[in-house]
């Protein structure tokens, strides 16, 4: 194994690509320390000791959803206790509660609510732009885009073009889960296929709309399914170059029908490191502190991650499934967490451009 590691170190230093076979060998034989060392090497080659964060706010506009994903603790059926949908005015009020904060990104995702008219989604984007004219809007997963196209008889391209005209700046990466069709039937049979998720992101990239990508891991998948997922993302990125960031999302096992225990700390760090090594064409890798926990996210910076996400303010989806991290962090808290891990905090915008701060 030492000869393989030495060869990979040399290749990483020169920007070489990890093959599928080498990735399999690493996950089967390398220790978490070996993987972390390689991940850090690849990360430092790109970003040095900088670690990014964004001053953002999450807006989960509805939890009414016609899908019933087995791992989801957030969704409600129409009429079910605890269900909600924000009007545009209520969404504006949520944003205005933080009017004095220099929010640079508003992240909008929700359930698939068949009671909402198509115009609602355009008005929601316009409302956010009016309330936060200086912020970028990252909104609606590929699953939501497919739902809008199917429900309102529009093409996916038209939906994206009309949302962009209303002010959409980027797509989040949610809804990817794990692409394997057989596992998807067990996890989220009502949800669009992994291939359709990829197709919608391909269309977005072709329109000049950048996107993120995710994978939900640590439930019933194995490393083969994880590598299939990463390989599909790498191939699409080779084709379009449209992915800004990859976010490995550790499964949260509480309050849902799937149950289980979720990934442990070593599995999380191995996933971070392998993602950094395999996705050589995706510039940024996020340690999503909300679902990983603050301390594991700090360790992830040493295993290949370069982004610590952001302030969030009010995250609902991961917390519904038992995430134990805070629902939001202040900028000083984020910067302290990054500095305590041994990295230099850099505030960024949605497109990972550093922003000037006073």
TrEMBL record:
UniProt KW keywords: 4Fe-4S, Iron, Iron-sulfur, Menaquinone biosynthesis, Metal-binding, S-adenosyl-L-methionine, Transferase
Domain Radical SAM core: start-end pairs: 46-285
SUPFAM superfamilies with a match to the protein in the record: Radical SAM enzymes
Gene Ontology annotations of biological process type: menaquinone biosynthetic process
PROSITE patterns, per database record: RADICAL_SAM (PS51918)
Positions with a binding annotation for S-adenosyl-L-methionine: 71, 177
InterPro entries: Aldolase_TIM, CofH/MnqC-like_C, Elp3/MiaA/NifB-like_rSAM, F420, FO_synthase_su2, MqnE, rSAM, rSAM_sf
Cofactor(s) needed: [4Fe-4S] cluster
Cofactor: binding comment: Binds 1 [4Fe-4S] cluster. The cluster is coordinated with 3 cysteines and an exchangeable S-adenosyl-L-methionine.
Pathway: Quinol/quinone metabolism; menaquinone biosynthesis
Class of the enzyme per the UniProt entry, highest EC level: transferase
Annotated EC: 2.5.1.120
UniProt GO molecular function: 4 iron, 4 sulfur cluster binding; 7,8-didemethyl-8-hydroxy-5-deazariboflavin synthase activity; aminodeoxyfutalosine synthase activity; iron ion binding
Reactions accelerated catalytically: 3-[(1-carboxyvinyl)-oxy]benzoate + S-adenosyl-L-methionine + H2O = 6-amino-6-deoxyfutalosine + hydrogencarbonate + L-methionine + H(+)
Family annotation (CDD domains): Radical_SAM
A Pfam family annotated for this UniProt entry: CofH_C
Entry binding sites for [4Fe-4S] cluster: 65, 69, 72
Function (record text): Radical SAM enzyme that catalyzes the addition of the adenosyl radical to the double bond of 3-[(1-carboxyvinyl)oxy]benzoate, leading to aminodeoxyfutalosine (AFL), a key intermediate in the formation of menaquinone (MK, vitamin K2) from chorismate.
HAMAP family found in the cross-reference section: MqnE (MF_00993)
Database matches in PANTHER family: AMINODEOXYFUTALOSINE SYNTHASE, FO SYNTHASE (COFH)
Protein name: Aminodeoxyfutalosine synthase
Organism (species): Desulfohalobium retbaense (strain ATCC 49708 / DSM 5692 / JCM 16813 / HR100)
